[in-house]
Sequence to fold (535 residues):
Amino acid sequence: MHYLLTVIGDTDNSADDSAPGAIDAFNDRLKDEGRWVFGGGLTDPQDATVTDSRNGEPVFTDGPFVESKEFLAGFWVVTADDLDVALALSADASRACHRKVEIRPFGGVA
Amino acid sequence: MTDAETDVGAAAGLDEVLARVHREEWARVVATLARRFGDLDVAEDATAEAFAVAVERWRTHGVPPNPGAWLTTTAGNKALDRVRRESGRDAKQRQAHMLTDQLAGPPEPAGAVEDERLRLLFTCAHPALAVEARVALTLRMVGGLTVAEIAHAFLVQETTMAQRVTRAKAKIKAAGIPWRVPAAADLPARIDGVLTVLYLVFNEGYLASGADTDPVRAELTGEAIRLTRLVRELLPEDGEAAGLLALMLLTEARRTARVSADGELVTLDQQDRGAWDRTLVAEGHALVRERLASGRPPGRYQVLAAINAVHTDAADARDTDWSQVAALYDQLVRLDPSPVVALNRAIAVAELDGPHVALAQVDALATPLAGYHAFHATRADLLRRLGRSAEARGAYDRAIELSGNSAEMAYLTRRRDQLGSAGGR
Fold:
């Protein structure tokens, strides 16, 4: 199965106190174990732009799609046999990036 | 006339057999199917269907020599039909072929049955599910209760409970919650959730809800004990598993003494202690002693077991060591500062310091426990002992209204009516 590990940023606690190299080490481990699909950190939500072409012409709006205290700060896509394996990975991911992490399975992968 | 009577008699006999087979085989059949099909929904529906077929078939053809095997086979065929139907509709042909191949393999060895049920238990009590969902799912899948029964037990609408169960099953499937007993390293962390669920199942059996339900559902208390034994076997070092087992045994030991012949609750102080199951008491005491000897700080189940050990140690209610009971409740309050624990502690306080002191403590819990029958029942008893009959009557009324247990209602009603006949205000 493929799981999305979402790194939850928090505007109330914006200090990044993840240990230097901890995320790199975690990424290397995912690759060594054959669990790595893709991952990366995102820049600040204020760098986001929302596009809406539902009415024909695209309309571009500055800012993220939802203004909230918590935001998407980064993610991993991993392969894991089941939720227990994904949960164990997410525990290490949360430790490495010092953020909360949400785990969600993909409904389908192209 | 005679024929009609015979039919009624035969039907009653069959009902009894069906109830027993349901109790004994439900979890086994669900667990076996869930493992084979990897889908709780399929397992549950197919098992329910198999029981429905059994009701009709066994009435005409008689009960088969091995009802469990008959049900497993029937449910397996129902499940296979459904999976084939759905896989056709979803055009997931490849998966269907794989599944069919898998199913054509050798049947599960009988010796794995206990493990199957333990797997089912750990799946239903997975920490990725909300606690209410874990309890509901365990009662449905492992305990075999209907959604309506579970809804009633936990005082929610049947539709709410149905959604809870459906959602939990969907998450197990979609999120990939595995179908297995966790690895040894993960067991201690996972055990707490399982014990919570088992204790809730036990309590629902011990103080069953529903005016038309047996006041005690021995099949639920028995099931909870059986599963807790399994957990303890799996984790002999886990103090709380031992504590919960001891607590259940010491409570179960008093089960038959707890409801009178005419279906009324008999309180601890009024129980015929000779009717207590000495084997269960001895086993419970041995577990409590074992935990004490370990020297490790006890968790809440171990403290609750110790409280019950004090009660079951006394040959007569008057010999109860209430100061020890109160001291244990003090310890419990530190571990679990919930209003329900505070309420139980006040009952011990009433014995030590009198009903007046206890009532003040109980009254302080009015806000969090306003909807809890035991709060009003305790209050009613204390008010009665203080001679405040009119207030006691009001508290009994409220307790009767909130109690879902037929034996407790009978007891509370008699107590209330005694106030009347005694000429209380």
